[in-house]
Specification:
It is built from seven helices and twelve strands. It has helices at residues 125-142, 178-194, 198-209, 250-271, 320-323, 332-340, 347-354, and strands at 12-16, 21-25, 74-77, 105-111, 148-155, 167-173, 213-216, 220-223, 234-238, 277-282, 300-304, 326-328. β1 (12-16) and β2 (21-25) form a beta hairpin. The longest helix is centred in the last third of the chain and has 22 residues, at 250-271.
Length: 355
């Protein structure tokens, strides 16, 4: 008699419809002992204001500009941008194997808060709502003449963040980047086949199955997606069909502040550490592509955290992952259950209450 398949014990592959590729799931590998590299835990004793930190209020940055004494969010042009608005065109490509194309854009940095020793889960709902409103305004502003506006936050040194001050980046580009182009193509193909947006259908499916839900409220759903690659990866989905951040209503923005704080408190509570991740928003293209038919798009956010076993052991995307296919070490259902069962009161707040 053939052995019955158990996703928590038997390797299998899962399809990611947004990217159009597959991930290998090998949950039994969590049983193996670990004696490899361990990361240094994030610094807990961070000063509230550091006169040498270029993101703090009143500090002079490397280019000589002085930050204002801001008391909320603060947006400024990146001093070392990856994209500039006036880069020259490389001209015709000399060979099909040596192609180049123009790339123009604008890069900005937005500080979430004047304090360096605070992160989004420790901010108030009103402060998080201000961040969301700013995200929407930036998308509208840069989206007028850029095809793609990528809002993203790299949190933690393990994710390459060189500054502990709470902030995000915005890279607006004249072109549709690879991830966005793949999401556009695959959502469009799904819409043409099923006459419904892919992620609207996925929201309904996850609400029905309830296997991978982490947190939810009236307007938003957070799941560990069925096709997740990173150990505790999550996908944030609105209930309503929404194309871009500026399209959110006031009540949906309030609900997004709520769901963001709850999710990030759970992340921090998992290993009782300021949880590192890269996160970003994906919505319908902007600029001259905004006038195209974009009904296949659904606004969503991705959170990609690297930690796997503890605050010091992370997932490495090397070897097979780099040369063959993405692989994960626990099922999406296992990860969702762990996150779902965590308290929503931040561990630091709990400690303060107990003292």
């Amino acid at each position: 008699m053939a052995e019955k398949f158990d996703p928590a014990e038997h390797q299998h592959v899962r399809y990611n419809p947004l990217k159009g590729d597959w991930v290998l799931v090998s949950a039994h590998r969590m049983k193996r002992p670990w004696s490899g590299q361990e990361e240094k835990p994030p610094e807990e004793n961070i000063p509230r204001h550091d006169p040498k930190n270029p993101l703090c209020p009143g500090v002079t940055r490397a280019n000589g500009k002085v930050n204002p004494d801001y008391d909320s969010t603060f947006l400024f042009d990146n001093d070392f941008p990856a994209l500039q608005p006036d880069a020259p065109d490389p001209g015709p490509s000399e060979h099909p194997l040596l192609q180049a194309a123009s790339a123009r854009g604008k890069c900005q940095v937005m500080c979430f808060h004047p304090w360096t020793d605070i992160t989004l889960p420790l901010m108030s709902l009103a402060e998080i709502r201000t961040v969301i409103d700013n995200w929407a305004e930036i998308t509208t502003d840069l989206g007028t003449n850029h095809r793609w506006v990528q809002l993203f936050e790299n949190k933690g040194a393990v994710m390459g963040c060189s500054n502990p001050h709470p902030h995000c980046q915005v890279w607006a580009s004249s072109f549709l980047p690879n991830e966005a182009a793949a999401a556009d193509k695959n959502q469009k193909e799904y819409f043409n086949k099923h006459q419904s947006p892919m992620l609207v259908d996925y929201y309904k499916l996850e609400k029905e199955k309830r296997e991978r839900i982490v947190v939810e409220n009236e307007d938003w759903l957070v799941v560990v997606p069925y096709w997740a690659v990173w150990p505790y990866e999550t996908l944030v989905l609105p209930r309503r069909h929404v194309l871009r951040l500026p399209d959110l209503t006031s009540s949906e923005r309030d609900a997004l502040a709520d769901i963001t704080k709850r999710l990030l408190c759970k992340y921090d509570n998992l290993f009782e550490v300021s949880f590192p991740y890269s996160m970003g928003w994906h919505g319908a293209p902007t600029g001259d592509l905004a006038e195209a038919e974009n009904s296949h798009w659904q606004l969503h956010a991705h959170y990609y955290p690297p930690l796997l076993r503890s605050a010091t052991v992370r997932k490495f995307m090397v070897g097979f992952e780099m040369l063959a296919q993405a692989q994960r070490d626990l099922t999406a259902e296992q990860a969702a259950e762990k996150l779902r069962n965590l308290p929503e009161l931040h561990y630091k707040v709990k400690r303060q209450q107990e003292d």
